[in-house]
Target: Putative hydro-lyase ABT57_08065
Amino acid sequence: MLISGEKESVTLQTLSLAELRQKIRVNAYTGSTSGLAPGYLQANLVMLPADWANDFLLFCQKNPVACPLIGVTEPGSPFLAEIGADIDISRDVPEYHVFYNGQFETSVSDLSEHWRDDLVIFVLGCSFSFEEALIQSGLTVRNIEQGRNVSMYDTQIACQPAGRFSGNMVVSMRPFTPKDAIRAIQITSRYPKAHGAPVHFGDPTAIGIRDINTPNYGEAVDIFDGEVPVFWACGVTPQNVIRQSKPPICITHAPGKMLITDLLNNALSVL
Amino acid sequence: MLISGEKESVTLQTLSLAELRQKIRVNAYTGSTSGLAPGYLQANLVMLPADWANDFLLFCQKNPVACPLIGVTEPGSPFLAEIGADIDISRDVPEYHVFYNGQFETSVSDLSEHWRDDLVIFVLGCSFSFEEALIQSGLTVRNIEQGRNVSMYDTQIACQPAGRFSGNMVVSMRPFTPKDAIRAIQITSRYPKAHGAPVHFGDPTAIGIRDINTPNYGEAVDIFDGEVPVFWACGVTPQNVIRQSKPPICITHAPGKMLITDLLNNALSVL
Model:
């Protein structure tokens, strides 16, 4: 889950969106997409068999902060015109995680061995969209500053159950001074399709996080004196829910390695 | 500075805005205006001699969060049509504070003895406007719940100096759970003319407040387990600045006893 070395990123950032997507499609790049294709919406993915899709659709409807739905494919189709005409969602992600019966099975860069004609793909908003807005407003996003994957934690915040899906919310954490946290709350409130405003700040134990220095996903970042941790709902939540709900197959993106769409981040902002 | 007893408030709240204003004008009511005339904008006041007015106008321009300017009168006039045709600002406030050479001199309910023909009145937005919005969104405002004047504190947050005016910001404090604080930040951001978003939350010492239980103005309120203090810029800031700047005369409202205008709170909201 490490983001790519700076040298590689610099090279990647000179590529056009089409060139970058091609590089990912042929598995010439399998790293983090953090900071790549600036301005373009990156998405979390959940793929489920059609007979599990209605339950998950309802789960997204009941948990829009953790699972902000951008789009849903037809069963068996890896295409979704509304996010980009040339996108093949089964090939255009640097790395996928494959789960069988709720258990993590394998990481792959190509889904050809696991694809099924009944798979429905859910495309969900991602906090990368608001990180860009935070930086453009002059705030420092610690995980980006430190070149690390964002810190993510299992919590005891229960999601609203839907059909066979239930479980707790996963959150991402970014530390800020109170003054910057207030500004970050204002900015991220404009991005409801990218998890929107934080769900908590301050005491980690209040939401069931025992050790802020040991994230369940991603990497730890420094929290400096005078800063408070600020927590946003995270698109890894479905992966936590799937472990408990045990669908026969589920495929997701690997954390930090997103689908880059043709949509603009700013097209998703409100206010 | 105690707000009026509940029995009196209930009676006052049955009055029309015109009736309430008349009661205040004849000094039949000299208490807090918190919770009175719901929906109508209440204002902080600063009155200064004309030869100090330009400096204060610049101070408001440089410190719009503490001093959100609604309007300014012509020298010697207690009227300002844009806030209400029938308002006499020199009579329609329950209690005024009069300062000579930066020193508090007296509290009065009638300005006839202190009025000067060169006085310019600055009408400034007040947090009562956003308290109403917080309550309408289902949040509990502790000072209102506990029937106390809001807690206000001198801080070490320096205002931008302007001409002869300089000094530190005064803040008001309301405790919330982090979840409600996030919502309160969203709501108050919509009211830039009523101090807008908070300037700080959490550790009081970070902004120079030594003892959260001993406010410099108003009254202490309970802060319960799991709550954090949230601090907004306060319209008492000018009174702090005046103590240091020592104009020959300055008249303000008494904290908590505001000018009730004909403007609607919601007319001041943005977004």
Q: What stands out?
A: Chain B is about 25% helix and 25% strand. The domain at 6-126+248-265 of chain B is CATH 3.40.1640.10 (PSTPO5379-like).
